[in-house]
Amino acid sequence: MKITKKETEQLTYLLTVEFEKNEVNEKKDKQLKEYRRKAEIKGFRKGMAPMGLIERLYGPTAVNEAVNEIITDGINGYIKENDLDLIGEPIPNEELQKPMDIEKDEKFEFVYDLAVRPKVDVAIDKADKVAYYDIKVEDDALAKYKEDILRQFGSLEDTEKAGEEDFLKVTLEQGEKKVENTFITLKSIDAKNKKQFIGKKAGDSFDIDVVKCFPNETDRASLLRIKKEEFDAANPVYKLTIGKVQTFVPAKVEQTLFDRLFGKDAVKDEKGFEKALAERLKGEYKQESEWRYRRDLIDFLVKKADLPLPENFLKKWLFRVNDGKFTMEQIEKEFPLFLQDYRWQMISRKIFTDQKMNISKDDLLKVAKAMTAQQFAMYGLGQVPEQTLTQYAEQMLNNEKEVNRIYEKCEEDKVLDYVKGIVTADVKEVTREELALLNDNAAPAKPAKKKAPAKKAAKAEEEKPAKKKTAKTKAE
Predict the structure, then answer these.
(1) Which is nearest to 253 in space by CA: 261, 263, 241?
(2) CATH (residue range 2-116)
(3) What are the domain boundaries of the chain?
(4) In the structure, what pLDDT confidence band is assigned to residue 470 with cuts at 50, 70 and 90?
(5) Verdict on whether the full-model pTM lies above 0.70
(6) Which is more confidently placed, 320 or 466?
(7) CATH class of the domain defined by 155-249
(8) What is the SS3 assignment for 80?
């Protein structure tokens, strides 16, 4: 066997694998003997069928397997011997591959494209500056935040007359049909049809056209408690009788709310309430600032490392490993994001390895608890008991998919914490609107996982040796 490597582009090579028929025959004979040993053919004891019959039944398959084994063993050996750090795996070069007849040819030549990773070298020090956007809490933002909190913890209360955004508990009747205690949200009805409800009281009755008031079939079916297909469009008019009128009332600024939000007796009065809200809002702003800072750190490191990548090879490889899940047009569209993420993965792994970092079970639990606390906070639950957080976090760690996600987050956190300790944060005070504008105008430094085609495939395949079935032959 002879293997030669020729550079075609930066980090990309053409690998030519040459071997002769006698090498194939040796492997083929071994394969046929194995087939004979396992074959159960009518009229013959197991493992005793004539080799001529085995040859006729399994010859083409054995030849193809022999060729693939020679290629795979040869390429893997060459990679190991030359200490090549591959990106992905070798890809058959369909343009340069000459047609071959495995049965007749005496010599064989297979051509592959392969690519190697660039050397990662990113030196950082205190002279490196990365912007940190500190969001200031403005009075109008705090007032709006307070209003939102009060609405979030508000409730429905009985009222006398129906207003623009009130709720009605009603009974609908049409002949023998009767739907009792069904709810209507006036906010969801358009202005023209809402007029007939405004000012009405409990006990009032009037006719409504449910098609005009509820043009959405699903909403209408839910109101009438029927399936969509059961609705009689020819008879849309129902008699409506109001049983109860309710209005939404924001929560009162009182001790019950303080205790619910911040823990018992942590806040005593409205002044303390507003101060606690300002601190919470500042905490939320800090999360936004930190997210942006992480993004800018990643972008800074990627630009500073300036890693070249074999882009043409990567596009072909992505198309191949995704096996038709993405078109080349889709890959082209998402490719800049993929390159950014791929470069960051290499940089992150290099720093993690060089600094001899590791991830413990406690690290995973800490991140899982933080993620759990964030999920609770989205539902307005800011004071979740530690025991509850731990319980939910441990459940997450029993899910393999979640563990992988948490591990990646741990690794990235450790790397970025290390970088934060070295570079200088160039603090800039901004409003939330100014930061939002910066985010809208900036290209994402860390693309969303679902946006980069084959990210998971790329991560899983990078360390694999060449696959067994790499040869495309006439025998196939």
Answers:
(1) 261
(2) 3.30.70.1050
(3) 2-116, 129-144+272-445, 155-249
(4) very low
(5) yes
(6) 320
(7) alpha beta
(8) helix
